[in-house]
């Protein structure tokens, strides 16, 4: 405490901001801003003159309620935030009067997340513009449809003129409401969870080339042979069944794709034939490629594809036991011809992965891998040069 007294107010204010947990449920007893303002008179003065300290609001879920939080405390924090941009997360159903209080400052919303379908429906229903909202997250609570069936078509394009980051995570039993229209072309990141192929087919052509698209647990194919053409340059496919990912890759074409990532929380691998079909159809030039769970010879065949020849950053891993050694031999033998521009190789997996990294770090610079190659073990920060 004695050393902190010597800090100038500006530095103390910066330290306070570092203490804020933007995801913490609002509770004046444990909230960082409220706690810091109770330490001493000087800290209170600094806290009250740091508006950004009060700009995060998380409406608690039912399990978070220890006691009712008086509306007056929400009003006090909102007042202390002054004109700061607001970050808001609605976990539970919010009383109408409290919700209306935050809608009156819609011009200050910067980030908002909805984990309650009824509150999101109210957001959609109100004809209010959110001129500075850059990030919108919608997480289906699975307690009914995302929007009531009677809600008319809603065009959010004009109401969200600065939206850049969109996450739509649907429940397994719900589908994307066809009456909702988002400003797809202006997005920089787009995360779609549990979207069926029919909806993906509608959205992908609308995304701009600079959008990073994440498809989480894509649904089964719609049976249509019509190809889905998109100009995106960055794509990540996460989780979902092997069959669903195969159905999607067989009809997807992305000629401008530079970054392709496959991520699995439960690694069952991705169909290498589907990846081959997708890359051959797309005729793209990848620079960053992540592929997990293939056999060594399947991986080598994929690395021989023209689309992979220009890869600079390669991530491989989660091979079956005994595959790492053979992969190492093949990579060391053919790597310069397959991926001559490779500069970073990430190895993900078990102890075998670590042993291979050690062998690569002692490789002969006259053959096999280039000495300029950086190797990261299991995605960590440990490097071998």
TrEMBL record:
Source domain of life: Eukaryota
The protein's name: F-box domain-containing protein
Protein source organism: Roridomyces roridus
